[in-house]
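Hi team,

As requested, here is the filled-out complex form for the zinc ion run. I kept the field names the same as last time so the parser does not choke. Let me know if anything looks off before we queue the next batch.

— J.
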Amino acid sequence: MELSRELLIAEMIDPSTGEPARTRIEVRRDPLTGHSSRILPERGLMPASDFNLEAFARESQPSCPFCPGRVDRLTPKLAASIHPDGRITRGEAVLFANLHAYSSHSSVSVYSPRWHYLPLDQVTRRLLTDNLATQVAFARAVMSADPQSQWASINANHMLPSGSSLFHPHMQGIVDSQPTTMQRLLTEVPAQRYGAYVDTERRLGERYLGNTGRFEWIVSFAPIAPAELRAFAAGISSPAELDDDLIAELAHGLALALTAYAEMGFQSFNFAIYGAPPAAEGYPLNLRLACRSNLRAFYRSDSTFLERLHWEGAVDVAPEVVAGRIGDRFRR
Ligand SMILES: [Zn+2]
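And here is what came back:
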């Protein structure tokens, strides 16, 4: 597989010197969906976090509905047909119905009611495993109670810049009869293209991070968002098919990535684990994980007219630089 890229040169007259200046912009095309992305020279668009998250956590805690003493009273229960207890728990993680539904079945799951403040280098494999396990149990319960709802995804908005309305860290599940646009586009990709993409990245090595067992991790060639990673697991197509071993493996990969993000100065992220219907032939369960701008007063959003309205990524953190920063931690 050839990875498509084209170099563009912009010319202008530099206001400080009066001399012509040139800027290199690389336009890349995603090998799966064809979405294009612009890799810009590093220009400081994503400054490291200098916000006092801990102080903000203390401020938002007294009214937080996900904290101990309030989570049982203030969060909605699941319908009895989905779960007789109204909530799904694993370890410290607690899953409940989303007060603001986005689909016929929408859930929210906290890593723990205790973890109102959870910086990225403290999102452990254990916390991720338990939280993912509640989402997998939710997807299975919904599919069994409502067989029309075959499209499951597990997602996260982490910190306000990512779209999260509540500070307290959590994941969100969607199980629906309707795919999202990206789920639909990804299931339209021919099966062999997934294998060819991962094989190509493994061979090139520049953006390939490693294999944690079943999951292959790479830095996106044509990211829609900064420092975007992708992972692919052949042989399963829905989060509902993740067994305990695969949940633990996925949690391990996510924990490695989030620790790397913390080291790079990022504290806000999104991820989406894109499920197709269970047993979808040739579709690998896959995810995207990407950084968002850091929380601070009058911050610049990383999502511009390009991302929102053109569906075109524009990042000044080159994927190869991200791969270099992550290094060999996925290979150990
Ligand atoms: Zn809280």
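Two things worth flagging: Residues 61, 64, 66-67, 116, 168 surround zinc ion (CB under 6 Å). The mean pLDDT is 96.

Thanks,
J.
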